């Protein structure tokens, strides 16, 4: 088949995930041919380090692809079919602050959950809306595939403030967990699974998992997850090829306790922050959080390797590898570009898909994706336990967007108070007042 070649811009070109995505795109050129890749970032110096290496990689492995790296929106967003967006407004310096301020008050400090996620959301909304506006100005037919976090809040902001824009929000956590399920089940690929799932982003449950013949795989998964969470047999034996970092290992193990609350379903790992917040606080080091780990490991490794490639002028011996999980981005882009009708988990307006839940909520559910975008699949009625949790959490997310839009201190205080991770309104106010000071260069003025 002769597939039309695509032009893409990666917004957040300086991201630690950009090299993995480039390698992944290169591995998938037969399914998703590309004529042009552009990088866009608002930090020229950071982006240049990744772009110089990417240019060498592309010259060596796919010289036919045109490459451009820029901080000029017009150059970046003109003549593109897809915007792949992974920006982090405020970068790791602000992630660190998001994580450390709540911990001062014995509240979890996390990138997307609790007050840290609210803080990040208040920065991200403007950044992501800005990217949509550039896309619509310079390439009105393009689609934006957004995985900039906090995806739940960003998705609600795009629903409310850019209702007609061609944007799809997506997360890799369910993909990562399904990779683990497949290992636990002794199967090869997550594409062999046929699943039902519902929830909010970083806040959801699998309700049905089958193989292609319709055999129910939940009993076998239950047996494993009730004992070991999502730790794989190889990890448990100590024979895994790749080792996960300690903090992620804890998360995958903790899924055992999250699972126990509703053994009929399989939980998303992020629920641990809402269901066991005190356990997470007890484990955390308030002076050294996940942001510090990432800066010391992933960020350092990626930038050191990119700088090494640029210095020696070749990437022939690089250990930069395709981010395997990231191939869902190609699946999504392909579905739109070539109308593949693939079934994927996406963050979309509920609109009745979860029958007994707010139709205006942004929910994470399976959708069929074609050239007109996602068609959500009805997941039916959900039980009281999940519904109660989701109603509280979606109110947090909606209040953050309203607070950003209206400049409302009151609504942001209500949002933080409503988070299950926060013990009371006084603590919510103390955290909020610290966050306002820390975010003075990023948040709208609140009154
Ligand atoms: P990073 O800080 O390494 O990269 C983000 C880049 O965005 C930086 O180079 C920064 O300069 C740039 N940036 C910030 N504001 C910008 C703006 N307004 N316009 C253009 N560029 C801007 O961060 P990272 O750890 O590589 O993560 C990148 C993003 O991807 C984060 O939002 C992260 O949470 C998200 N992410 C999401 C998923 C998911 O499941 N949805 C998975 C992994 C990462
Ligand atoms: C998962 C989530 C992402 C999140 C990432 C954090 O992939 O789905 O939304 O950004 O984890 O990873 P990090 O290594 O930056 O803590
Ligand atoms: Mn995610």
Structure description:
- The protein is of the alpha/beta class and 447 residues long.
- Helices cover 49% and strands 15% of the residues.
- The chain is built from 17 helices and 12 strands.
- It has helices at residues 18-27, 44-61, 73-77, 91-104, 114-138, 151-161, 173-185, 218-228, 233-237, 246-260, 271-275, 277-283, 290-312, 327-338, 384-406, 409-418, 425-438; strands spanning 6-11, 34-40, 66-70, 82-85, 143-146, 167-169, 194-200, 203-210, 266-267, 342-349, 362-370, 373-376.
- The strands form 3 sheets. The chain has a 6-stranded parallel beta sheet, with helices on both faces. The protein has a 3-stranded antiparallel beta sheet with strand order 7-8-9. Strands 10-11-12 form a 3-stranded antiparallel beta sheet.
- Strand 2 (34-40), helix 2 (44-61) and strand 3 (66-70) form a beta-alpha-beta unit.
- The longest helix has 25 residues, at 114-138.
- The radius of gyration is 21 Å and the shape is globular.
- The model has no long low-confidence stretch (mean pLDDT 97).
- The chain binds nicotinamide-adenine-dinucleotide (NAD), 6-O-phosphono-alpha-D-glucopyranose and manganese (II) ion.
Properties at a glance:
single chain, alpha/beta, 3-stranded antiparallel sheet, 12 strands, 49% helix, binds nicotinamide-adenine-dinucleotide, binds manganese (II) ion
Share of β-strand residues: 5-15%
- Overall pLDDT score: 97
End-to-end Cα distance, whole Å, is: 58 Å
Low-confidence regions:
none
Estimate percent helicity.
40-55%
Computed over alpha carbons, the radius of gyration is 21 Å
Query: Bound small molecules, which ones?
Result: nicotinamide-adenine-dinucleotide, 6-O-phosphono-alpha-D-glucopyranose, manganese (II) ion
The largest pleated sheet is described as: 6 strands, parallel
How are the strands of the largest sheet arranged?
3-2-1-4-5-6
Number of helices: 17
Q: Helix/strand/pairing class, anyone?
A: alpha/beta
Number of strands: 12
Element pattern in H and E: EHEHEHEHHEHEHEEHHHEHHHHEEEHHH
Tell me the overall shape: globular
